[in-house]
Amino acid sequence: MSFLLRDASEADIPAITDIYRDSVLNGVASYEIAPPSEAEMAQRFAAIIGQQYPYIAAADDDGNFLGYAYASAFRTRPAYRWMVEDSIYLPPEARGRGIGKALMTELIDRCTVLGFRQMVAVIGGASPASIALHLKAGFVEVGLMQGTGYKHGRWLDTILMQRSLGEGMTTDPDPSAYPGTLFAG
Q: Can you tell me where the transmembrane regions are (predicted)?
């Protein structure tokens, strides 16, 4: 099956909401318990792209939505502005087909070009599939937080993974160029 990657758009919000709803209700990647509304997902989307973070969609040749990925602030304190957190969501029928890997690679590439220096993954439920995807993309495990969430009748662990982007921490960043202008203060 072939697919293409493109910038996500407001027209994708219904599909994004459906995929995330399934993840909230049936998965452990998100620690939300109640799925957000389409209006809430539209606000989240606008906040992410409004700060020029990448938000990517995957679709098949017929235009069917196959998943999405985005980068966002890990924390909004000024010193964190060089680090992004990745998020990737796929519907069950799209998993195991290389879509997640393609989205991850594209997200890493775009964040590197934008000037970010670190990417972190906060893997809820310590999902083996998500851990494997991140390891293949060059992430290393930097922490395990045990019993951080309680969902679906069980305690969940959270794995933290990280990888350097571009020059990483080998050089000083330029605070006058994006992402140096984020959260300045």
A: none
